[in-house]
Amino acid sequence: MSYPIRELLPPEFPSITDLRHEMVREIDGEDLDASTPGWRDRYVAFFSGYQQQGRGAVWVVEDEGVIIGLTAGYMPQNHRTEIVGSSQLYICNVYVKPAWRRKGIAKALTLHAVAWARRRGCQVVRLRTSDMGRPVYSSVGFVPSNEMELVL
């Protein structure tokens, strides 16, 4: 079965914070409401701002009016974009409710975001993945990079 993907409008963004909360609980075991008060408002403001600038979007898949899958993307400004002129999309929040997994929804959402980036002239698409998501992203051509991080 094919599930259509649609772009959310900023007034709808609060409706996906529960799904984002569910995702973080599943992956990290963290309750964002307890550990990061006010995160829902900041989440909505962040993605609303990027979408209003034409530099970001949030996409969902629904089944009978219920959001079952989500992804978001934004075009950050950093040294690569400002000095080199290499625009990029950062994909985040790819999540599909457990009952709808293994139906190609995460892959379709990711490819949708990649196509959006291509239309905007992005040269690279980046994301951070869980172990569960790695096979999805590898299947569409993502490869590990040489970036490292230091958690402070």
**How many structurally independent domains?**
1
Task: Report the CATH topology name.
Answer: Aminopeptidase
Average pLDDT: 93
CATH-wise, what's the superfamily? Gcn5-related N-acetyltransferase (GNAT)
Rg, alpha carbons:
15 Å
Task: Show unreliable segments.
Answer: none
Q: Briefly note the structural class of the backbone.
A: alpha+beta
Q: Helix segment count? A: 6
Our estimate of the beta-strand percent is 15-25%
Named CATH architecture? 3-Layer(aba) Sandwich
Q: Helical residue percent?
A: 25-40%
Question: How does the major sheet shape up?
Answer: 5 strands, mixed
Strand order across the largest sheet: 1-2-3-4-5
CATH class: Alpha Beta
Please give the number of β-strands. Answer: 5
Order of H and E elements: EHHHEEHEHEH
Question: How many angstroms does the end-to-end distance come to?
Answer: 44 Å
Spatial shape = globular
How would you describe this structure to a colleague?
This protein has 152 residues and is an alpha+beta fold. The protein has a single domain (5-138), classed as 3-Layer(aba) Sandwich (Aminopeptidase), CATH 3.40.630. The chain has helices spanning 17-28, 32-35, 39-52, 79-84, 105-119, 134-139; strands spanning 5-7, 56-63, 66-74, 88-96, 124-127. Strands 1-2-3-4-5 form a five-stranded mixed β-sheet, sandwiched between helices. The protein is globular and about 45 Å long.
